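Weekly structure sync, notes
Attendees: PL (lead), two postdocs, one rotation student
Agenda item 3: pending single-chain targets
PL asked that the sequence for the first pending target be pasted directly into the notes so everyone works from the same version. It is reproduced below exactly as submitted, 458 residues in total.
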Amino acid sequence: MNQLFKRNITFFAVPLIILFIAGACDKDMSIVLDNSTTDDVGVALLDTISASTSTVQMDNLPSSVSGRLLVGKATQDQSGSVKSTAYFRLGLTSLTQDIPEAAALDSINIRIPTAKSPIAYTYGDTTKNQTIRVHRLTEDLELKTLSGGIQNNALPFYVTGPSLFSNQKFTYEPTDIGNVTFKPYMGLIDTLKIRLNQSVGQELFDLLKTGATAVSSNENFYNYFKGLALVPDDNNTAVLRFTDTVDVNINYSYTGTDGAKKTGTKTLSIVDKSYESNHIEYDRSETAFSDLTPQKGIPTSATAGVTYIQAGTGVVAKISFPSLKGFLQDEGISINKAELVIETLPRSSNELYPNSTGASLFVADHAGVPVSFVGTPYQNAIQEARYIPGTETGSNGQFVFDLVQHLKNVKLNDAYDDTSLYLTNNRTELFNSFSTTFLATENGKPKIKLNILYTKFK
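Predicted structure, written out during the meeting:
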């Protein structure tokens, strides 16, 4: 080997088969090195760099155009209760005024298909009866446009324009216009069908039959009929997921010219998907996270190391490595491989409260606003770590992220100064479920390890 090359380069490496975490198991980050028997390879061991962790709740989660309606209420001991009410605006699928003069109203009902792709989703105890009530909205569903506020803060990267957000609440009539109580066997139920009050059906039928101005266009109809809310009963124990392909059928019958009885239907549906939303509420008053709000996070030192992520409410685990920048600023360091390994509590085989099927990492700025994401290395796509389940015998679950490109960005780009990582559910789940995952702990800290394979040039 060239002697000049030998004098000026030392390689620090681990076997490519395994990045093994060295040092005490309660530390948060390890730079792992391996011994070598050759004189040509220098060996060094850098002690761990600690992670700072806390539980944070993101604000302003968009809720429209998700394709899913969440309805229900459920309580989990460690994270408290969650509740979702679905709002949506209805429009006419046909503006043709073709109801015969002799026609009379038969019934009006709403059909709400269950979401089974890839499987039916529930969160909570589905062994008990659930009640859903249909209410008529009294307030327009209005899209909200976020601004940076007085301090001109950045906007979350996932907010791309006016939207309905999960923290928006809209008023509805106190008395329902229909309800249903049922066993939530969502794998067996294709469509939930609820008969609505005849008086509401007659009101709409008369407008359609006479061709009133209120039904001459969808814009006119939106002004007349604000929409519907699907409201769970306070005694419900599960959140259920439906699709947004909702139909309200106004059924009528008449006698044809041949003397035979004939039937017809006028259908209302969610014509504009921008005007559907899941309004999310939560109550953590009986948990260690009672003080958690969008304005106030909770350090894991105050919760015995416990933190979690939860879709729907936007709860994330905030992770930062205060000393990492200093390590990366060493001009002689070149990162070859970096993996962030986050251990979670093992998933139970009969889990009522589904874990996340995958997770992502958002990059939050100094104000805690998620301004970007950790991408798949060398691709402009958000990286999603598949959930690796643990076992009931004690093995923890895991999320594993490739951070090699992210660390290079941190090293070279000052825009990453004062940023942190938000561990969150993947985007498929984040806006249309309540999937919840608790991180594993050890010695009062979350089990988070960052393993780095690097080359150091002398």
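Discussion points:
- Residues 1-47 have pLDDT under 50 and may be disordered.
- The chain is about 10% helix and 35% strand.
Action: rotation student to compare against the earlier draft before next sync.
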